Amino acid sequence: MYRELKVLAVVVFFSLLTYYLVEPYAHHEMHKKVDANGTELVIESHGFTYDGRDDIAEAKRSGNETLVATKIDFWKDVVEISKLEGDVTTGEAVFANCAGCHNGMSMNMGGVIVPNLDHAGRIYDKNYLIALIKDPAMASNVDHKYADTSMHPMGSIKFTVSDNQQIADVVAYMLEKKAEEVTPKEAYEEACVRCHALRYKKMTQLGDTPTFKHKKDALAHEIKVIEEQEKVQAYMGNLPPDLSMIIRARSAHFLETFVANPQGQLPGTSMPRVGLSQEGYDKVKAYLTEAGDPSKKAREELGPWVIGFFIIFTILAYLWKKSMWRDLH
Length: 329
Known about the structure:
Elements: H1 2-30, H2 53-62, H3 65-82, H4 88-99, E1 108-109, E2 112-113, H5 120-123, H6 126-134, H7 136-139, H8 157-160, H9 164-177, H10 184-191, E3 203-204, E4 207-208, H11 215-236, H12 246-249, H13 252-260, H14 262-265, H15 278-292, H16 296-324
Antiparallel strand pairs: 1-2, 3-4
Helix pairs in contact: 2-3, 3-6, 4-9, 6-9, 10-15
């Protein structure tokens, strides 16, 4: 009995050592993040709150003092606007201007399809929505792509809704009237699909792939998808990857920090910050898990039964061994 317990203890010890120390250390060494000067960066998660700290830190590392001042002033204004009490009724009238583009009709403007805002108040963070209306390029942390941020496809909004109170009003409207319960699929469709296809769910940049009776109709739709992908590729520089297996290909920490601030993981990337709230991210993650790891729930439910089986089997094996060796002493 004592010998078997020692063997078990050794196996458990080295298994835990590998799982909690060796593997994470190896992953850290193989995926170090360093700036232009070779200084290692610590990619942190801030719980999907947007106050500009990452953007300001990135600007400081660039050594561009003008950019640092611009970022500080921008996010300071965002925080101040967030303190204003918005009027929902007034905000609804302002939002009518937004509905001309954000109407769920999959219109491509400037290289990407305009997102649907049906659940904007549910899946996006309040500060991000304020920042997005104030200056889309700055809010998305892709201002490095533009000599003038008004050149962003949504750049004109900062001139049409430039008053701080108007911004507070329209955000108040979205937080109250565009905040119904959202499914994981709806969250993914509104936040991600216009750039990222999901082939395991038969979803392209144009949404769900319909079932066609005639092959020519299927081919016509495929051509539309290809044309849309070409527009996205031209705008982004590269076609954003299919996310069917991202839930398995990347760690939970990578996904969380990348979605919260893509520049932190891929400096200079064209991917904008999406601005998801914690709830919005959880919904998107749930849909990605459903697509890339559909058996996860069943596997997790089966896990305790498997462990229970091994415990019972171990006890029975020990009793059997004791019974068989009883006459050998």
